[in-house]
Structures are given as C-alpha cells and as structure tokens.
C-alpha cells in the first residue's frame, strides 16, 4: 500500500526514517500541551492540523489549532478521499488531511494528535505508524485539569469524562503508554520513544 511504502522509504539525510507519530489519550490528559512542546523542541517534527466542524474555543485560531470548517465542507472532503482518517466526537467531526501528511513525511516526522478510533484506523493503513497513548495519573487529576483549563462547561466536561473509559480500554492496542504525571518527564519519555523508532 502506498502509505506503508512511503513510511519505510522516507529516510532523512542521516539515514533515519521519518515516522508518523500518533498521540492519543483522554480529553484533558495533556495531548495538546505535549504536542506543542514536542514541535517547539524538535525541528524535525511537523504537527498535522486537523479539520473539525466544532466551533473554535476562545483563543483558538483557524489554521493554527484546527481548520474550522462547516459540516457540508467536511462531508465533501470525506467523499473526495481527502482524509487519512476521520471520526465523530461529541457530535462533531474531526479529520486528518491526507495530502499534508503524505507530503510532509517525505522530509519530516509527522505528529497527529487524534482520538483512539482515528489512531487505530491510521495503524490499519500504515503499520509503521507509532501509536503513543498518554495516560492520566488518575481520573480525578484529569477532571481537575479540565476544570482548570476552563474551556468547557461542567456538562461538557462530564461528557468528556464519560468517554475516558472507552479511550483507556484501547490502551493495549497502542504501541506505547506514557503516564503524563510530571510534564517534563512525560515529554522526555515521548522523545525517547520517537528517537528509538527513528533509528529502527
Ligand atoms: P488535551 O489536549 O489532552 O485535552 P491539554 O493539553 O489541553 O489536554 O491539557 C489539559 C490541561 O492540563 C491544561 O490546562 C494543561 O496546562 C494541563 N496539563 C497538561 N499536562 C499537565 C501535567 N503534567 N501536570 C499538570 N497539568 C497539566
Ligand atoms: P477537542 O475538541 O478537545 O479539540 O478534541 C476532541 C477529540 O478529538 C480529542 O480526543 C482529539 O485528539 C480528537 N481529534 C482532534 N483531531 C482529530 C482528527 O483529525 N481525527 C480524529 N480521529 N480525532 C481528532
């Protein structure tokens, strides 16, 4: 399959392979925080910006955090095969732009910050992808983080909490599990995994 071939053959000048990294985990576990640090600290990693039909939160920017699009446009993109994967989440759609990922993998590692359904879909089509699931130190802590982040109503936080069990039930299907307790330690652990995978 085209995707797999690309992953195996994309090597950088120093003969390391470019990897497709999937970062997943329950809402509030710290995916966004860790993804941001990873791309700041590692110039060879590019973040894929997903398309979503949800409304922007305060402070979010179109083209930086997501491409915010209407449901009709999302549907068109699905029909045109424009997504590597997509899934529905809390009544909105989220999808990974396929062409960006394929083009960028020629030169860089690509990081996807997506939910477990999306991650497992990517793995099906691209077995060389590296699936990393972030785990919270406890359920209480993840709830506290969502409350502290203050981007959702309590009702929406409760919806997100309801989904945690589902996300965690898939953790064994992921290649790596990393507990995000101390932020710096978790980032180092993820960087170590990427480094090892690049050298495989
Ligand atoms: P996600 O993208 O998984 O929904 P975020 O990255 O938005 O989660 O993190 C949720 C909240 O938790 C944010 O306010 C963030 O600053 C905070 N956070 C992330 N990692 C840690 C950590 N290791 N310890 C304490 N707070 C954290
Ligand atoms: P949020 O609304 O908090 O930004 O994201 C909700 C969930 O959608 C998170 O679990 C996030 O990782 C996931 N998500 C974001 N982009 C994508 C994507 O392109 N595909 C899939 N499958 N999930 C995504």
Description:
By secondary structure, this protein is an alpha/beta fold. The protein has a domain at 20-48 and 108-198: P-loop containing nucleotide triphosphate hydrolases (Rossmann fold), CATH 3.40.50. 44% of the residues lie in helices and 20% in strands. The chain has helices at residues 2-9, 31-41, 71-79, 98-105, 116-125, 139-149, 154-169, 183-198; strands spanning 20-24, 45-47, 51-52, 67-68, 83-89, 92-97, 109-113, 130-135, 176-179. The strands form 2 sheets. Strands 2-7-1-8-9 form a 5-stranded parallel β-sheet, with helices on both faces. The chain has a 4-stranded mixed β-sheet with strand order 4-3-6-5. Strand 5 (83-89) and strand 6 form a beta hairpin. Helix 6 packs antiparallel against helix 7 (154-169). The chain is globular. The two termini are 20 Å apart. Mean pLDDT is 91; it is low at 1-10. Bound molecules: adenosine-5'-diphosphate (ADP) and guanosine-5'-monophosphate. Adenosine-5'-diphosphate is lined by residues 25, 27-33, 145, 148-149, 180, 183. The site of guanosine-5'-monophosphate has 16 residues, from strand 5, strand 6 and helix 5.
Strand order of the largest sheet: 2-7-1-8-9
According to CATH, the fold-level topology of the domain at 20-48 and 108-198 is Rossmann fold
Shape: globular
Bound molecules: adenosine-5'-diphosphate, guanosine-5'-monophosphate
